[in-house]
Specification:
Elements lengths: L4 H11 L14 E5 L4 H14 L3 E3 L9 E6 L10 E6 L2 E6 L2 H18 L7 E3 L5 E7 L14 H6 L6 H13 L4 E6 L20 E4 L17 H4 L2 E5 L3 H16 L4 E6 L20 H17 L3 E7 L11 H22 L5 E6 L5 H7 L1 H5 L3 E8 L13 H4 L2 H5 L4 E6 L11 H10 L5 E7 L21 H4 L1 H12 L5 H11 L5 H12 L1 H8 L17 H4 L8 H6 L11 H9 L9 H19 L8 H36 L2 H28 L4 E3 L3 E3 L1 H16 L3
Parallel strand pairs: 1-2, 1-3, 3-5, 7-8, 7-16, 8-11, 11-12, 12-13, 13-14, 14-15, 15-16
Antiparallel strand pairs: 4-5, 4-6, 9-10, 17-18
Helix pairs in contact: 2-3, 5-7, 8-9, 14-16, 17-18, 18-23, 18-24, 19-23, 22-24, 23-24, 24-25, 25-26
Length: 726
């Protein structure tokens, strides 16, 4: 963490009267007694040493300890797995972890407190993890021949080489650990040729890493089909020369490093794909192919044989499987014959090892899954978990979600545990940060059946930044660029009681030249533009809505371009838990002179104005000239505020268009024209500000090419729609 100059002074001042050691040459050093040599603890110890600067000394004799910092593992009754306590007793500070992971988190907390408040500000604290599993959903582009869902995109193509860069994984894993994530789920359509040598199918293993230089289609099948098309595979570029044995060594090293930071790895797949096999051995994507079944079963087992630190696997019975005229029972039978038998083969061969098996409920039911996978569920060394797409594709919509209720999911799993999927297919360009929203969202998740959460995207790969013009740190990690968003979801998933005061202090530490409380407020207000807008204009799946471009796949947009015009703002419904009224319902209510408890479209418009205006007013006086990251942050807040003003005027304009069509009252038409003209002005301000620091256009795999300059022309067309006498 960055440190303010006065913090050094404060620490040194306190040290003169606090925690001395007897050695004359170290009489101004703080003694640290680490009683654990676990790599997890050593990682946090380095953070603690960094917070102290050079003012520390490591000691081992804890028997004589009367002062200093004690780090120890002790499973106290008030602690759970990964929990910790920080206690003060005169000149002695004890950090106690239930286990090594808890001690790591406790030591990270202490380092943070020292960094933020100095020694006099150290507070006693006891914490246990709220969510047991906390991790990212990471669509991983391993190779053009073994793609993830997200490979047909700029994010995918730019990040294929990154996935084979160990320095990336060091930084990524360290960052995830600091934010309190404890696992990483890597999602792929068919990763095995890039990861393992499968007995009997050795020829399939891929030597080298490739990506395509061919001309890609803008949109590919939304089920992951067609990514082995000739235009893709016939134009390869070798980005890394690496044998399969070297790949195996690489991923063993990555997983081992993750284990040293309390981070497990899981590979999760969609099904059934045969990418990378090249049709060898008679393997196809047909479910009745016995060779394919054998290959998949052996691939699953070989993953665990090859990677001793791999924690688990997961699957989806859907995507390509449902296109062959199969039933849910057919798909589950196939999954049992392949994935279930594969992990049970591994579990039988390694009875002392613990395995995790994640079955995503998708295009099938929980009861059917439980019935078919009973043998896996009952296995002593296999933990069976469900996975449910909790917020569909847009967590930034409402803090309460209805889909598990609609599917009777909690009743059907009968007390078993699930990982709740939190899909962020909303924020790619701009830095997001609303702690109040995240806290409320997490607290509303059904905790009684929660094993944990994953947070991520299908449209985006959180590798290295490739969009920023003239960045302070070229090709910085996305989770560093978007550090606040990722920190909020990680830290609040571990501890939802964490207050905004702590986040304000973290902002003050990172940006010492601005009022942190004002920055937190402005950032939160601007960020709420996302859920207010998407809660009102609700396209529940990723391809149905992308707020930063007012765009989607053409079909759900009901336009040839994919732009959501004023007509679509009239017809598209609201989020079921948003508390917002649709435009048609508002028109009918108005004409009937009725009332509603819901927020009307015009009230939603006003809310967006309040948020945007509040953020813009707050940042007006902030001087970011001495900090480039702060410049980009404030620029993002301003940019998103203009986007909020655009949607505020557009929602109002759409409302008046709808009123005019029913009443033929020209005053409604004129209001619509006025509102949509103002919307155009703010869209132009939005894009102008966005283009100051971001590249354009952006090719995404779910909605196609988003070109802000082109979209401007479609924004203008909204005014013409309002002028028509319909």
């Amino acid at each position: 963490m960055k440190k303010k100059w006065f913090q050094y002074f404060r620490v040194l001042l306190v040290i003169t009267s606090f925690l001395f050691v007897s050695c004359s040459n170290q009489d101004k050093s703080i003694s640290i007694y680490p009683t654990s040599n676990e790599p997890k603890v050593n990682f946090a110890l380095e953070e603690l040493k960094s917070a102290l600067g050079e003012n520390y000394v490591l000691l081992n004799d804890t028997i004589k300890q009367k002062q200093g910092i004690l780090l120890k593992v002790e499973p106290l009754k008030n602690l759970k797995k990964e929990g910790f306590s920080i206690k003060k007793d005169k000149n002695k500070i004890s950090v106690i972890g239930y286990d090594a992971a808890g001690l790591m988190y406790g030591s990270l907390e202490l380092a943070e407190q020292i960094d933020l408040y100095g020694f006099e500000g150290i507070q006693e604290i006891t914490r246990n993890p709220y969510m047991e599993m906390r991790g990212p959903k990471f669509n991983i582009p391993l190779d053009v021949r073994t793609p993830s869902y997200s490979d047909a995109s700029d994010a995918g193509q730019n990040n294929i080489p990154v996935m084979w860069d160990f320095d990336f994984w060091i930084d990524y894993i360290d960052t995830m650990a600091r934010y309190r994530y404890n696992y990483i789920s890597l999602w792929s359509l068919h990763p095995f040729p890039s990861l393992v040598k499968v007995p009997g199918y050795e020829d399939i293993a891929l030597d080298d890493v490739q990506r395509s230089t061919g001309k890609w289609n803008e949109l590919y099948n939304l089920n992951g089909i067609g990514m082995g098309a000739p235009e893709i595979l016939d134009n390869p570029e070798i980005v890394k020369k690496i044998t399969i044995d070297e790949k195996i060594a690489f991923w063993r090293k990555v997983m081992a490093y993750g284990k040293d930071r309390n981070i497990d790895f899981h590979f999760i797949t969609w099904n059934i794909f045969d990418y990378g096999t090249g049709g060898k051995y008679g393997i196809t994507d047909k479910m009745d192919n016995e060779i394919t079944k054998d290959y998949f079963r052996k691939s699953i087992k070989q993953l665990f044989v090859t990677y001793p630190d791999l924690a688990g696997i997961g699957l989806t019975t859907g995507e390509n499987m449902g296109l062959h005229g199969t039933t849910a029972e057919d798909r589950e039978n196939w999954a049992y014959d392949t994935y279930a038998k594969g992990i049970m083969d591994a579990a039988a061969e390694m009875p002392e090892r613990k395995f995790t098996f994640i079955h995503r409920q998708h295009q099938t039911g929980a009861k059917e899954i439980a019935e078919k996978f009973k043998e896996v569920i009952d296995a002593k060394n296999i933990e069976f978990l469900y996975c449910f797409k909790y917020a569909k594709a847009h967590i930034y919509s409402a803090t309460e979600q209805p889909y598990h209720e609609q599917d009777n999911f909690m009743e059907d799993i009968e007390g078993m545990k699930t990982i709740w999927g939190l899909r962020n297919d909303d924020t790619f360009y701009f830095r997001w940060g609303a702690p109040d929203f995240v806290r409320e969202f997490i607290e509303n998740i059904p905790h009684e059946v929660a094993k944990g959460i994953y947070f991520g995207s299908d449209q985006w790969i959180w590798g290295r930044d490739f969009l920023t013009k003239n960045p302070e740190t070229p090709n910085q990690l996305e989770v560093v660029k978007h550090w606040y968003q990722w920190l909020l979801w990680g830290r609040l998933s571990y501890d939802p009681t964490l207050s905004n005061d702590k986040f304000s202090d973290l902002l003050a530490d990172r940006f010492p030249n601005v009022d942190a409380n004002k920055l937190l407020s402005a950032w939160q207000q601007a960020s709420m533009v996302y859920p207010v807008t998407t809660g009102f204009h609700w396209g529940r799946l990723d391809f149905q809505w992308y707020i930063e471009g007012c765009f989607s796949h053409p079909k759900p947009a009901e336009t040839e371009t994919g732009f959501h015009d004023v007509n679509r703002f009239i017809t598209l419904g609201t989020h079921p838990k948003s508390g917002y009224q649709t435009i048609p319902d508002y028109v009918n209510m108005t004409l009937a002179d009725d009332t509603t408890s819901l927020k009307t479209p015009l009230q939603v418009s006003e809310k967006l104005h309040q948020l945007a205006d509040g953020a813009l007013e707050t940042i007006k006086s902030m001087d970011a000239s001495k900090n480039k990251e702060l410049q980009y942050t404030i620029n993002d807040i301003e940019t998103v505020s203009y986007l909020g003003k655009y949607y505020a005027h557009k929602i109002a304009g759409a409302t008046y268009v709808a009123l005019y069509r029913e009443t033929k009252d020209e005053k409604h038409q004129q209001k619509a024209i006025d509102e949509l003209t103002k919307a155009l002005g703010f869209w132009e301000s939005y894009t102008e500000k966005a283009l100051q620091q971001n590249k354009n256009p952006l090719w995404t795999n779910r909605v196609g090419i988003v070109d802000w300059n082109q979209i401007t022309n479609w924004v203008k067309d909204d005014i013409e729609i309002a002028k028509k006498d319909e």
